Structure formats: structure tokens, C-alpha cells
């Protein structure tokens, strides 16, 4: 009986939907099989993330490493059996970090661990110096009177909160993005912000700040958490703290970046496209393993498993490695890769039935966000049956705009889904020199692939109209 049962299961998987007696039951059985393969690590996810981070290290947008990694990725997709592989270029202004230093001049000279924010301008060779004016939050800085910071270095000391869903990062973000502009409006000559971080190490966190009218108005740096604490303690001791900022950053105004695109074509509904996104570029300090080579590996492995399924899905699965996600631009249009992808496909937009993005490291997926209608539909119920064994539950939080790269698609009307990862430790390493391969747990990476392949297979093998759910 055990032998007959196993044989029947295999026959149901290999047969078409009609032979199974229920198309949805057969599709769900394949999803479960793909889930189990992924969970066992039977996918190219680890190989992919290991190789790209080892071969190319950091991949700043517009750099030679960015381009080389894109060419390697396109070749890799072809080797894995993806079709219609292409590299889609677009122009951008690249920002290049130079020699930099932040130091306390008074009351007692000492160096500080800090990195320039992306897009921030260089200083003169002698740097820029001023007395520190400290603020507990971006809101406090914004409330400062006009000209109250004349000749000073503004410092926002807001301490980011560790959260599972990354909401602490959102709360701290304005201090990095808009702080230099607000400080400049009040007369400051430089800007410091406590790193948007939770690790407590002396590794400062990079990140882009915003251009205003085509330029970042001030030299701006992120301090490591212990060094931000050091400044804060000095100020609270009643000292007049004087610091000097020095940066040799440069701009390359005619640089180029690119999206890399590949497909697993569908069958009778091949014109329907499900987009799986991650970004190829990284910050220049680490090797971009968590942010976002892991995301590239996850979506590639999920799509590859679907391509190797007993039969092809009905809809086309398209992976997109977006370029220039990490950088701000003088024009204000960011991220460039997501906007470029949309601009080149406005005529095919109605064929995009669903979009999702993996850009939150490689820790385990714990919940899935769908539109209310999709979550309550037969598709949603089937999905939850498949992913419950790997610890994934329905999320009450809607998918929103899905992520920064697929956001342009979602704003244009494409439905989104989000597979929510545990981000409790993500900001220990995010945008630092410690974002390296050893921070990825292979078992957690495999669980991500399992969650992605389950959802994407079921969506791709269906005729569900996600726009109306």
C-alpha cells in the first residue's frame, strides 16, 4: 500500500491537471514538492550569492564592478536555463567615496569612526570645522530657528529602534535623507547623523542622502553608534565640542548602470508576467551579501526551481536584477532601475499581473502579505496550506508598494505581494563593511527560497486576476 501510494503521488505530479481530477489540487501538490526541494537546499541560491559576492565584492552603482557583476549575472541566468535574458542600460550620476576623516578638535583631539553619506559633496583639503549643535531627533532639528546653526556642525543623535519588520529604520530615515538640507537652511556648514543601525559596533552605516535642487547642500557623515555616543556624552558634560569633517568624494556625471532581466516562459498564459525583483548594486563598504545579493539569489533559485518543475507554469516568471537602487540622483528620480524598467514597458503594463521584491537580507520569512481579496481567495488558502509547514503565516499588514524597486510598477497599478522576513538583526550589518557572506545562514536562505517558490508557482500556474482581488 505504501508503494502504491507513493507511485500515485508521482503520477499525479507528472500528469496534467485534468488527469489529477483537480487543476488546483495538482498545482498545489507541485508547489509542495518545490517547497520541499528548496527547503533541502536543492537550489542554486547559495552558489549564486557566494559567487557574486566573492567575484565582485562591493558593486556601487555605475562602477566597473557593477557592470561586471551584471554581465556575469546575465551569463549565469542563461546557464541556468532562463530565456530572453537581456541587460537594460540607463545613465546616472555615480558618487565615488574618497579619502575621508571625522575628528574631534576640542576639547580633546580624537578620531571618530564615520563614513560620508552617499551623494554628499567633498570638502576642501583642509576640511570643514565647526562647533557641534546636537539634536535628539530630526524633528528637533527641523524646529531649530533660522540661522541658529550659522557656522556649526549639526548632529542628529536619534537612536534607531530594533524591530522585526524594519519600522525602526523608517522612523530614523528622515535624519539621513533630509537632515543635511534642513541643517543647511539654518546656516550649518556640515552635518552628522547617528548611523541608522542596531549592531552597536564601530562600523558606521553608509546610505544615500537627498539631493536638493541638483546638489547635496552640505558635507554629511554617519557616525558609528559608539562614536555618536561619545559626542553625545561630551555635549552632556557641558563641553563645547568642535569637530572637523574631511571628504574627497567625487562625482561621475556620465556613468551608466543597468537592469538584468531573464524569464521562465509560461504556457497558455505566457503573456502574463509575474515580476520577481532584487537589486544588483550595493554599498561600497562590504560585499553587499545581505543587501542585496541574497535577494538576487532567492528569486533566481525560486524561478529556477519553477523552470525545473514537472511541467511549466501557465504564466511567465520574470526575474529583474534592478540597477542603482541604493543611490540618490541630482534629478531626484530614484531608484533608477525601477523607473527605467517601467518606462520601457508602458505598452505591456497590463500584462504584469503581480510583482514582489526580495530586499531585506536572508533571515527567515515569517509572514506573507497579499491584498485582502487575494488572501481570502482559493489561491490564498492554497498558498497558506503550502507555506504553513515552513513557519509562514498570513500577515494583517497589506503589501503596500512592495519595495523600492517594484514601487513604480505598483504605483502604475500592478498588484504586489510581500514575503516578510525577520529583520531583527538586519540593521546590525546593513550598509556596513560587515555586510559579508558569512552573515548568511544557508538554512534560512533555503527557507526563503521555499516561501518564494511556493507563492510564485501557485500564482504563475493560475488564472487569478490579482488586480480585481
Description:
This protein has 469 residues and is α/β, with parallel strands linked by helices. Helix content is 36%, strand content 22%. It has two domains: 34-94 and 253-468, Zn peptidases (Aminopeptidase, 3-Layer(aba) Sandwich); 98-248, Glucose Oxidase, domain 1, CATH 3.50.30. The protein contains 16 helices and 16 strands. An eight-stranded mixed beta sheet has the order 3-2-9-5-6-7-8-4. Strands 1-10-12-11-13 form a five-stranded mixed beta sheet, with helices on both faces. It has a three-stranded mixed beta sheet with strand order 15-14-16, covered by helices on one side. Mean pLDDT is 94; it is low at 1-21.
What is the level-2 CATH architecture name of the largest domain? Answer: 3-Layer(aba) Sandwich
Q: How many domains is the backbone divided into?
A: 2
Amino-to-carboxy terminus distance: 42 Å
Instruction: State the secondary-structure class.
Output: alpha/beta
Please work out how many helical segments DSSP would assign. 16
How would you name the CATH homologous superfamily of the largest domain?
A: Zn peptidases
- How many strands, which pairing sense, and closed or not: the largest β-sheet? 8 strands, mixed
Measured on Cα atoms, how large is the radius of gyration?
Answer: 24 Å
Strand order of the largest sheet: 3-2-9-5-6-7-8-4
Specify the CATH class of the largest domain: Alpha Beta
Q: The CATH topology of the largest domain is what?
A: Aminopeptidase
Globally, the shape reads: elongated
Number of strands: 16
